[in-house]
## 1
Amino acid sequence: MAKKTTVVNRILELCKEKNLTINGLARLSAVPPATLKDILSGVSKNPGIITIKLLCDGLEITLTDFFNTEEFKNLEQEIR
């Protein structure tokens, strides 16, 4: 699975767990709704760590919580 898809899946999974809409997450995290929608639609191909951190703050989780999933653990190494 591509990194971008893994990030999108994780955001959607966490929104579902927290019963949040995309606009609700945008409001809680101070990330503009357009930015979040660009990430989810694939327009933004590489969301920055600052944006991910803001989303984590809105979700009340740590960066470790965000990335600590089997999907992320199983991503192939890009540079060899």
## 2
Amino acid sequence: MSLLAISPLDGRYADKVAPLRDYLSEWALIKHRVLVQLRWLRAMSAQPGITHVRAFTTDEQILLSRLEADFDQATAERVKAIEARTNHDSKAVEYYLREQLEATSLADMAGSLHFACTSDDINNLAYALMFRGAIRQIWQPAARGLLDSLVELARSTATVPMLARTHGQAATPTSLGKEFAVFVHRLRRQLRQIDVQEYLGKFNGAVGAYNAHIAAYPGVDWLSFSREFVEGLGLTQNPLTTQIEAHDYLAELAQSVMRFNSVLLDLCRDMWSYISLAYFRQQVVPRETGSSTMPHKVNPIDFENAEANLGISNALFAHLAGKLPISRLQRDLSDSSALRNVGVAISHSYLALMSMRRGLGKLEVDSAALAADLDDAWQLLAEAVQTVMRKHHLPEAYEQLKALTRGQQITRESLHAFIHTLALPDEEKQSLLQMTPATYLGLAGQLVALAVEEAAD
């Protein structure tokens, strides 16, 4: 961790976001540019219609594979040194690879690197590979890990009664697990949309019309060759573009992660409130300090940290989703700087996932606090009583319960006294008399089971 880092991602949180560096750093961008350049050279070698790139020997194929696989810090630094001279980051990769090939049996092929390419042919594929890797290999497993933690919490508290609050006021009881199940369902739905996200790529030249390609080889089926090359990288071809891939898929990805983040933000704030209400105790870590002046404090810092990072992530994603699909005429360079911040947005979301999972792992349910809230809330059964009264056509059912309970302190005795006055069948009356706030849970337990089953699919 550098104390001189401007961004907390590279300073305070450097160790926490370390897994993302292989996909979202400048090093990763150079690495993936190298990969695309080398794959393109090999693809041309295997294309019968392209005659100036000869077939490669087995040893030459191994050499190219090693150039790709052995990419390291020294390689990246050499590319950056070349960039300092050329002032062009993508061209610096080409020149670096030329250096490497010129010292081998592939020296005659060095001039075929970057053939018929514009910079974005390389860059858009490199970025798509980077973002796909970061999301699928790092972010999605973290999201699923958090979802698993929520599923377990929902399962273990499926029938733990809890006083619900609507508008911040005491409301019909629910179960703690059912409220977690709601978030499991919401997050799983958003995660499914991220799971099927396409990562698009284009490979069609300076203005997207294969002009140079046709000038050199009019007989090659460039539409098919381009599609095969893009799909061979595991991406989906975008066949119609200007000089740049339009980034619509990145806007879709940004908006999908934003929705996931927003559900997490909702959960963070609820967890903060439940801890404030003492429904949860937080495990004490002896070496930690909660407050610089109040020794007793155990603050919900993990959820607060997550809330902050989710907000930053969404702010960046919102800008990127609105900016990236817009480019003047056939291209402007503003997307280049914007694209470098997609990784920042992903990283802040990842930090939040880690914080929330850590926070959930510290929680212990305080059943006594939950029970105490419900034991003092017999007015919550007014809903059940008036609904049964309406079932049997008793007059002014809602109005009678409103007069009895609204703004009043209701006890078990006063509610039961009212129920005894009602002209209800004995079976219905006994059912209401046996009901308590803690047992008035509807189908909460079944709904938890539904969410748990859904998450397992």
## 3
Amino acid sequence: MKTKALRLYGVNDLRLEEFELPPIKDDEILVEVISDSVCMSTYKAASLGPNHKRVPDNVAENPTIVGHEYAGNIVQVGKNHQDKFKPGMKFAIQPALNYKGTLWSPGYSYPYCGGDMTYSIMPAEVMECGCLLDYHGVAYYKASLAEPMSCLIGGAHANYHTRPGVYTHDMGIVEGGKVALLAGAGPMGLGLIAYLLNCDRRPSLFVVTDIDDARLARAEHLFPVEEAAKKGITLKYVNTGKCEDPVGELKNIAGGDGYNDVFVFAPVRQVVEQGDAILGRDGCLNFFAGPTDSKFSAMFNFYEVHYGSHHVVGTSGGNLDDMRECLDMTAAHQLDPSVMITHVGGMNAARETILNLPKIPGGKKLIYTHIDMPLTAISDFAKAAETDPRFGDLDAICKAHKGLWCTEAEEYVLKHW
């Protein structure tokens, strides 16, 4: 079977090529990829090439496929897996295999397995690790977003709290407690808001901060305080850039005694220290933002570590349980990761999107692998309709869904492109 794929040959050397896939083995599965959401980690792999820990040294001679946040349909199943998987099933993938201590991962390391291709072969270790997941939802893009959403879910589960005199940790945020999300109006922050407002362990007070009024306004449009109140959650949005005393303002909102859980979504020293300063007793600071500076550091109040039981946790990625939780909540319409997507395009746009990702504003970029479509911001659909009337239809569909990408928009694209 022929496939079209974006292959990595070296530093910034991505090539869109068509080639023949080999027949699958008994322990492999052939899948059709429908959607792939572009991750900053893919940009890092493309910019580093063989210097990336997950990319093989011989990538110039044996190119690999990029993209690891993908979903689609199972096409053919090797005989070793026919008791569990059937042709026609929808799938999502957890790319963090951690297979026998190696760093090999779909989207980085394999010649026939990745998200930016039309048809892909799942190697044996994907199934052996339980990382090929059955997806029962309708929209493929929501399954693509299960991987980044699983990172957020994992972060929420990783927070912990102590019991005085009892040497155990209670995992997760404090149920009915106070949560602050700092620098949280970006795409990943919106994903965490969506999760914490709808999961089974919710706060009573949820404060979201940013220094950009437009981003905060969009967050409040997507997650109105009135809707949160119906769930018993007091939701507040605060522009800390306009506060004379941000720490004092945030502590006042919390009643003066600080927050049980603080999430920091920007690798900025000032924000980290602000998070430390607003922790309450036994407060957990979750440093979620991944810095590029290996020496990044900030001050932390160790007086409060000793006397106030303040502590820090950090996570990088989610696990299979986090992924399953996301897929189950999405299929049950309890969680909508659509808030993360700001741009949509086809396979023809994948290369330039990946190589220029840090320069493209907005949130997640979504690629549909079987179509040709310029990468276009959802907010620019009306303008794009001046040259392609199909974008006018997409604009109307998305505006009917709070300006978000949605199942109807995906179905339109797959039919008309």
## 4
Amino acid sequence: MRNFSRLALVAGLLAAVFSCSPKNTRIQGTLADGAGKEIIVKMLDVNRFQVLDTVKVNEQGAFSYALNLELAQPEFVYLFYGDRQVASLLLQPGDQVKVATDTLGAYSVEGSEESLKLQKVENAYTSFLRQMNTILSTEENPNAALSRCYVDYYRDRLAYVVTNARSLTVVPVLFQQVNPSLPVFDQATDGLLMRNVSDSLKTLYPESRYVKALEKEAERRINLMDVNARINQASEVGFFDMELPGMDGQKVKLSEAAGKVTMLYFWASTAEQKMFNLDALVPIYEEFHPKGFEIYAVSLNMDKTVWATAVRNQNLPWVNVCDTRGVASPYVAAYGVSNLPMAWFIVDGDIDPEAKVSNAQDIRNYLRRKL
């Protein structure tokens, strides 16, 4: 009986090991008029393609490719003939898929429900873009027709996302664009939709790179909502207020830390910027702080420990806060931070748009005029 129990335990452990092992997934395909040609297999890596392999098409026009996928991590896999995408697949671990395509990209797929959904998603998107282009090229005053076309497509895709919230095919839908500067999902509340969908998908695919990318985009969108709300309230203090944790973990508002003249200073603890702190800012601060000068220094270090170590080692005397969201911070967008370091000056509660400083002497000259 004891031996039986041990065997059962071993069997259970082996089952657990194999259940977590990568699953062999296979694509069996044909390429019409493609005998002797090559198919390039690529995997989507969030926002770029990663080439997996090049597969030879035999004399009968058939090809085959196998890959191992981790459990609970479906992947977007694309087949290319030269530079042309000829099939789009969303493969689950263990899928055995049959693809029939041609060199122009007209394809059919069997054995993968998610791939069939993805095909319909891409066909709908292509049709929408084609319709928009037709309106632009044929309508004398296209704005009204373009608006109707966009609204109809947005509503249709919104319905698709809501009814397929547990399918990874909604991820590319949520990232579709009308053009490079206009996402399809551009409404103020779409960030909340993205977060709800990513929360739903995360229960099924917690380690999926695509779910993590959607979650990150949702956070960015929601941050922008917060930015817009704060901008609408900015007239109360004359500038866009912010609130970030300081060295003790307590949040400090820019409006509460402001002096007669406040330098809002975005930086990161690189060697060059740390030298600027000691060589330029500390002497300036010591000279002008008694006259009403304050610095609200926002570090964009994503590693809070690196920032805190720099502040302690340099004994920086001004208000020090850290935004570990880095360039994804809504404050970066609100203040148009394009490079580091970068400074804005707040004078008597208002942003001074005329302040032009590019070095320590500029800062000193500016403060002499204002204080």
